[in-house]
Design brief:
alpha+beta; flat; 4-stranded mixed beta sheet; single chain; 6 helices; about 180 residues
Amino acid sequence: MITSEQSEQLRTWFADRLPVDVYESLVEVAVDREEITVVGTLPANESVKAFRERTRQQRMEVAREAEDLYRRKVAWAVESGDDRILFTHLAVPVMTRLRQPERRVLDTLVEGGVARSRADALAWCVRLVGRNTDEWLTELRDSLAKVREVRETGPDRKRDADSDSDSDSQKSGSE
């Protein structure tokens, strides 16, 4: 997870590199361990297909630079009204161990036609939780950012820095 400051720097990086005519406006730049997703407003009177074709080369150039710099794949999305259309994105496998009651939930979703497979059913569950607990998840992410900030200013940081400089001076004194 990255800090809100790093997230803002990433957003600024993309805003500075995307040509003005790619998006009507930059809505969001989201990041996780594998992927950066860039979301913008679809220009008025343009279809998603036309947008993708018109901006493909520009997006590919920015994505290559970002992938080299941030070591993450870049995904693209557009918003048009209440719709968000995501394209060129990753589907990353995750490992999990589920007991029978959890597997039965997934199997019920598959048997009921809600999902094609257990993997799809699990993704459906994650999306449902995300939608219904968005405020709580935002609060949790903010709390994690605060924990990271507190760790960075903790007493061990000063001691670690002091011991590093002591060992450096001992090394240079003995050479």
